[in-house]
Write a structure and sequence with these properties.
By secondary structure, this protein is an alpha+beta fold. The chain has two domains: 43 residues; 153 residues, Rieske [2Fe-2S] iron-sulphur domain (Rieske Iron-sulfur Protein, 3-layer Sandwich), CATH 2.102.10.10. Helix content is 23%, strand content 20%. It has four helices and nine strands. Strand 8 and strand 9 form a beta hairpin. 25% of the residues are buried.
Length: 205
């Protein structure tokens, strides 16, 4: 062994590249082993596939919805609408009462806490199941008014082009529509001023 090798402590007969490879390989196995331990823990924190299929609650951030806009998501395999209604939209609900089949939602499906004129916990936030109560089609969102192609006194709402059913901005069905009752409302609650949870009643908070 040379004097330089003795001073540095490096044996020239040792393959240092192989040593580095073994060190890196051992480190890599440690990382993989750690991930193998952590992953089941993280996976256990998520709803199971069975729970998701059964309709695990979903959280919706209201901050992403501008006034007048409709946001669409899915819960229990059904399309869910969340509409942030403007003050003008809320005011329009009383203008069409006489044209509706069930303005008080007495024969419609909704939680008890949404059986009011706005059909909502808070008047500006509307949550509806998007399926038309006639044959399950998905109506289009028509907030524009007037809209003579939809109705003579249209104040905005939902229109099903498949069979002509019309609903106001609270999902209440207009007279003369094939749909027999108002759009359904799923259970939901406010987790905060800027977030709702679909699939849970307020009592679950």
């Amino acid at each position: 062994m040379s004097t330089e090798s003795a001073i540095s402590g490096v044996n020239p007969n040792v393959d240092t590249s192989r040593r580095r490879f073994l060190t890196l390989a051992a480190s890599g196995m440690g990382v993989i082993g750690g991930a193998a331990v952590v992953w089941p823990i993280l996976a256990s924190l998520r709803p199971s596939a069975k729970a998701q299929a059964a309709g695990a609650p979903i959280a919706i951030d209201l901050a992403v919805i501008e006034p007048g806009q409709k946001f669409t998501t899915t819960w229990r395999g059904k399309a869910i609408w969340v509409v942030r209604r403007t003050p003008e939209m809320v005011a329009s609900l009383t203008k069409v009462t006489g044209e509706l089949v069930d303005p008080d939602s007495a024969s419609s499906k909704q939680p008890e806490y949404t059986q009011n004129a706005a059909r909502a916990i808070k008047p500006d936030i509307s949550v509806l199941i998007a399926n038309c109560t006639h044959l399950g089609c998905i109506p289009t969102y028509r907030p524009d008014h007037p809209a003579p192609d939809v109705a003579a006194n249209w104040e905005g709402g939902f229109y099903c082009p498949c069979h002509g059913s019309k609903f106001d901005l609270a999902g209440r069905v207009y007279k003369g529509s094939p749909a027999p009752v108002n759009l359904s409302i799923p259970p939901y609650r406010f987790a905060s001023d800027s977030q709702i949870v679909v699939g849970e009643d307020p009592s679950a908070a």
